[in-house]
Every structure is written in C-alpha cells, then in structure tokens.
Design a protein that fits this description.
The complex is a heterodimer of chains A (481) and B (387).
Chain A: H1 9-13, H2 15-25, E1 31-32, H3 35-38, E2 55-57, H4 62-75, E3 78-82, E4 98-102, E5 109-113, E6 118-122, H5 127-134, E7 139-140, H6 153-159, H7 166-169, E8 176-182, E9 188-192, H8 203-207, E10 216-223, E11 225-226, E12 231-238, H9 241-253, E13 260-265, H10 266-276, E14 286-293, H11 296-311, E15 317-320, H12 324-335, H13 337-344, E16 347-350, E17 353-354, H14 360-374, E18 378-383, E19 388-395, H15 400-419, H16 438-441, H17 444-457
Parallel strand pairs in A: 2-4, 3-4
Antiparallel strand pairs in A: 1-2, 5-6, 6-10, 7-11, 8-9, 8-10, 12-14, 12-15, 13-14, 13-18, 16-19, 17-19, 18-19
Chain B: E1 3-5, H1 10-23, E2 27-30, E3 46-49, E4 56-60, E5 65-69, H2 74-83, E6 86-88, H3 96-99, H4 107-113, H5 120-123, H6 126-129, E7 130-136, E8 142-146, H7 158-162, E9 171-181, E10 185-192, H8 196-207, E11 215-219, E12 225-232, H9 234-248, E13 254-257, H10 259-270, E14 282-287, H11 293-300, E15 304-308, E16 313-318, H12 322-334, E17 338-343, H13 346-351, H14 360-373
Parallel strand pairs in B: 1-3, 2-3
Antiparallel strand pairs in B: 4-5, 5-9, 6-9, 7-8, 7-9, 10-12, 10-13, 11-12, 11-15, 14-16, 14-17, 15-16
Helix pairs in contact in B: 11-12
The chains are: A alpha+beta (481), B alpha+beta (387).
Chain lengths: 481, 387
Amino acid sequence: MIDLPAPKPDVMARREELLAGLRALLPGDGVITEPARVKPYETDGLSAYRQPPLAVALPRTTEEVAAILRFCHRNGVRVVPRGAGTSLSGGALPLADSVVLGLMRMNRILEVDYANRLAVVEAGVTNLGITNHIAADGFFYAPDPSSQLACMIGGNVGMNSGGAHCLKYGVTANNLLGLKAVTIEGEIVELGGRHLDAAGYDWLGLMTGSEGQLAVVTEVTVRILHAPEGQRAMLAAFKGTEIAGAAVDAIIGSGIIPVALEFMDRPCIHACEAFAHAGYPLDAEAMLIIEVEGSVEEQDMLLGKLKEICSRFDPISLKVAQTVEESLAIWKGRKGAFGAVGRISPDYLCMDGTIPTGELPHVLRRIGEMSADYGLQVANVFHAGDGNLHPLIMFDANDAESFRKAEAFGADILKLCVEVGGCLTGEHGVGVEKRDLMPVQFSPFELDQMRALKSAFDPQWLLNPAKVFPLEGNPVLRQAA
Amino acid sequence: MTSLIAPGDEAGVAAAVAEAAAAGEPLAIEGRGTKRAMLRPVQAARTLSLRNLSGITLYRPQELILSARAGTPLAEIEAALAERGQQVVAEPPVLAAIFGAGEGPTIGGLVATNLSGPRRITAGAMRDHVMGIRAVNGLGEAFHNGGRVLKNVTGLDLCKLLTGAHGTLGVITEVTLKVLPAAERSGTLAIAVPDLETGVRALSAGLGSPYGVSGAALLAGEVPRALLRIEEFSESVAYRLGRLREALGRFGDATVIEDDESRALWRGIGEAEPLDARPEDAVWRVSVQPTAGPGVVAAAGLPRALLDWGGGLVWLAGPATAEAHGRVMEAARAVGGSFTLFRAPEPMRAALPVLPEEGKVLAAIRGRIRAVMDPKGILNPGKMYTA
C-alpha cells in the first residue's frame, strides 16, 4: 500500500469555517460535503484506494476555479483536480484534508473552426464528445484512450493520454495548440494559442502530462483533423511471440506505418474470444490486429503488402476484412479485452509500461515466469508499434494477500520495463500507483530537480500533492506516521 | 573573439559548466554556430561548443528510434536514416539562405531552437519527436529525461521544456528522436490563385480533406501560388493529387509537380529560399492561426513574404528598422500570434524584444524555472529575454 501524508491539523480543525468559505464562492449546489454525495469522489479508476476528501467543489467557469484556488492557497488547503475520475494510476485520489476540484461542469464546446482546424473546449468535455460534435462534418480529435467515452480533455492533458492510434496521430501533447490554466495563486494564464510553436519556453509541453502538479487546466484548444476516407483491419495469428515480434519488425521496416498495430498474447486471445466470440484462433501464441486507412483501393494495396509480409512468418491464420463489418468483428474482441478479463477474474490491475519493441519476446517470457511465481494470471495487450505494454494482472480484491501480491507483481513488471530500456508509464501516468517506483527510473538528483520545478509553480505543494514524486526526500510534505 | 571550449564528452561539458558557474562567468552555448546570429546576442567571454560531442549512439530502424550526441551534424543523421529509408520527421531546415551555409547545423542545435520545416503542419515539430534527452544544468549537473521509447509520461516532460529553450535551461548533450519511414514518392499540386486570402482558403480546404496533405505553402508574387504536397506510396500520390485537383480546382488553375521537382521545391520552402531575403534585410518568423496569415503580411507592409504551414507560418523580410519591427510585433499581437526576430544586425537584436514578452505571471514562473535550472544565470544569458 502507498503511504499518504498526514492531514494538516490546522486545516482539519478549521473544517467548518473553510467549507463556509468555499460555499460563499460557489453559491447553490457547487460545494458537496454530505458523505453520501462525496462518496463517488473517494476514488478513481484505481479503485483499490479510497479516501473521502474535505469537500468537492464543482465550478462552472474559469473565474470560479480561480476563486477556489485563491481561497485554498490563502488557507493552505490542498487541492486535487479531477475530470471524469478515470485515472488508472490514482491521479485523482483525494487526500483527507483536500478539496477535490471537479471540472465536469465545465463541459461546453466553445468554438469549432474548420478553416484553422481547431476546437476550443472546456476541460470537462469528454474526449469522445469532441469527436461526436464534429463527426457529421467529417472531422475528429485524434487521441483515443480506451476510456474515451468517459474521460475528459482536461484529464487527457494532465496525463498526456495516448490510445490505440497514436503510432500515426501522436498523443495528446502532439494535438494541442493552447491551454487556459489557473495557477495555485488563482492567476489565469493562457499558454500557446491558436497557432503552432509559440516562441519562448514550451509551457504547453511542460503542462501536458504534468498530472495536475503545476496548474489547473480549464480550457483547451485542440487540433482537429479530417477523417480518412475509410479504414479496414486484418488479423494475423502466429505460433510464437518471437515470430509475431519479427513480423512487427518487418512491417515497420517495410515503410508502412499502420494506423493501429495491436498485439495480444495467448491468455488475452482466449479471454477475448470467450467473451466476444470474435473468431480468434485459440491455437495461436500471439495475434496482431493491423489497421490501415485510405480509399478502398489504397486499403487493398496496403493490406496486400501487409498480408505478403505476414505470410513470410508462417502464420496460423491471416484474415483480411473485406467490409467494414468484418473489420469491426476483428476489433470486437480487442475492444472488449478489459471486460473479458473482468469476466474471468473478480478484479484486475491494468499496468502500463513501455519497452523497446524488440524486447517484447524477452519481456513476455519473464512476465510468464513471474506469473507462475506469484500464482496470479496475467493477460497482455500491447500497442506493438510504439512499445506500450498493458499487462492485466488478475486478483481478488476481497483477499488482502492477493492484492498485495498483484501490486508486487505489477511493480516487478515495471522494473523490468525500465531494466530493458523502457519506462514506468506510457500513457496512464505515475499518480500514486507508480510514485514509489520513480527512483527506479530517475536518480535522486533528477527527482530533486523535477521537484524544484514543481515548486516553481506551487511552492507550498498544495496542487495534487503526494502524487508522482516519492514522499521521501520531499521538501514540503511529511510522510504519514 | 571569444575563447572556445569544446569538450569531447558529457563529463567535460559538466566540468566546463561547473567551473563557469563557480566563477560566475557566462557561457555562450552552441553546436557549430550556424544560428549564432539568431535572437539576442550573448555577452560572454567564453563559448561552450558541442561540436566535439558527436556521433550516432543508437539506431534501431524497427523501433523508429535514433540517439545521437548533441554535436552530430544533421547531415550525418540524415545520411544514416536514408540508408534505411527513414527520415527526421519534422524536416528541420539548414537555413543557409538566412544565416549562410556555415558548417551545417547539429542535431542539438536544431532541438535547442525547435526549428521545423514544412512537414510540421501535419507530422509535428522537432519538439514532438524528442523522446529523450541528456543535458547538463547551469551548475554542471548531468541529467536525463524521457528515454528511448515512443510513449513515455513518467515525470515532468523536460524534453519539451529544453526543446526551444535555446540553451538557457541546460546544455543538451544527447538527444533521442522518433524517426519515421520516408515516403516512397512526393508530389505537389500547384494552384495559381488571385490573392493570398484565396490561397489560404485553398490550403485550408486541402488540409481539411481526407488526403493527408503533408505540406501547404503559399508563394507570394504577382500571381500567388498555393502548393499542396502529398508524400505516400506511388499509387496513393497519383490518386490523392487527382482528388485534390478535383476538390480545389475552383480556387484557380492547377498543375501537378512530380517527384524530384516536388522534393526540391519543398526543400527550398523549408529553407525560406522563396522569401528571397536581401543581405541587408531583417528577417522575421511569425506564427499565427492560418487564416490570419495574409492579414499579417498586409499589416506588416514589408516587401518580401512567404507563407508555410497552411498560411500560419509567415516569413517576412524587409528594412532592419525599429519601425518595421514594431509593425511586425503589432501584426502578430493583434491576432494572438507569436513572432521571432529571426535575423537582424546585432545592435537591433540587442535593443528590441526578439520574442513576444510574456505576462507578469508567466515571466515570474520563468524566472523561478531559470533559478532551478541555471541559478547563476550563466547559460546563454539574455539570449531570449532581457530579464
């Protein structure tokens, strides 16, 4: 279990006074304190951790956000920014003495500008909400994390979210033009704008993926793209993970960058097939889903080349979708992977490391050995083009020992990712989940330097504290007793 | 003439910076010095050059990853990539037409200045492809950030903070880039348009199409020409140019420019050659939303202009005067854009803001960030801002 800092006694002692102050800033139903209504905010996508906050504040405007932050800053109150609460790393986990600052009421799409290919949206607009709003005109917002139905753009900025299609379209940071954000002092700043590559320090880049450590994002200007003419998928199944890995190398080496290149291992294939009946080959050790884009003729040309490449690796099965329906059928199992694993295990931890793609066979072999040692099942989904690995570790949350083992197994996988040249997190963020593993990837000096940069924005460590950086060695936060 | 320190390894860089920090002596930081005349002049008795920190340290074509020491010439990296049919994604320029040929740029210099070419509009900037960095801060302490994988959100993104910081937050010693396959073929649709506004409308229509336009520039002149590039497999280039021609014919007469000629054309645009800057000209680079580009050209009232990035990147050249500079700054400010005084005589660069001033809040945070990364203020002091 992860330690959290002790609540500040002065804040806890002044609870009623502070809540009255917050209510004065957000009249009506903007401040939630009743335990039953606070409950949904106790946790996020990392539901093994729960903590009711002091209160939940739900502002509707940037000015209200500024007023709350100014108040919290003046009173030394910790603030936990929150979008939809889908973080798998505990990025929105409250502290007992914190105010959860929920951005979900800031859910307006303020402007769509097709000539300049941008949209200005509030932080609480969902990821898919942007695409749905512009899809009728043929446009879309590219990053597509698997939580895109629920997750909000403010949280996407906080975590620099990716998705299955980022090999071609990039992650959140590559699809932003500007941000409106509020500092802990309550100052409203505009970073970037409606143009590319503003001269000066890259505030936009520094903010993206900073996990709510530096400022609170209230408005986002995103780049939007016209959708391709069409897309289609193929499935290729192989006798071994090494063989599938070699096929991936050959695909990338051929000069084709598929829009998606997904890898599933044997346990994952079996779980998905049992759940979705997508027609996946159960005798395969590894399976690829490859998607291309373009006109029907272009799809045929690219799929033809890909089929030829895959056929060199003695595939068990090669299935090229001929229609959109067949394409959806191929994707059906993969898209249901989390649900499928959820059906065979009461609980699972979704890990998120990145490895050099060439290390995949080695890493999967080691994960298999660890799985036997820990006595816990694991299924692996892998964005094969960009090296982002998602092991799903199955455990039983009602059994404390099972959870402890699952956490230790997950930590061992992430250490392995770093050992082979990769990193602790590709797209979920550090949050609380991977906080204490940071010394595996960074030296004490490197961590201190990052902490000092955090302090440059937030000297008192009031913004989303106890996340990202280990408590040990922290200049401000004290470790819980 | 300033004295030159040119260490051969990162430890040497760290020692040189630590020594300068202890003495409180500023250092001018550079690769091979091709962009020394960019932004404000640095007052430093000593120059720290990365020229001897050279060589590709890792290249995994199948993993789309290349690492190189900061002083590695761009030409060396491009040659290694070309052997495997790959390329530096952002198409960074040499800028010989602006700063003279010199010895050619280094990869560290291009990252430190975040300079990208025409492909930036769809494929991203240099900053989008820096996956990892090694650097030395202003106290001479070496650190790394990011890594050698394509997706990484572990900790604060100092790769982006250092990219485009012109050496003021750290001396970059090694970079790791995401690279991509080079397209089999290049082709360009050229449309003769009546004016710049129509030209940007044509570029917007092309960039807002499903055809994956990878370059969108506008050449000024009596008959402006809107240029749209497709880089794909051969079959796709022919098909997509055909569809674009059907869709954009309404903007003016269109012709197709084929492979080699298309490549040469875009190399020139990336180098700002069509700007035709005179030796005595000052040169500005303005970034605005694309539809505002023609208005910036009109408001600046300068004799020479070139538009790239769909109209959003405006190159301007004209008299090196404070008055002209004032007009450019105001033109950018009026539409919420950004500018760089890209080339000018030294007294002009020393006296005028070379970048937009930031508001009080950001300027204060910037000062605190500088205090973390370079507490003695010795790394390229004054290069970007006076304070």
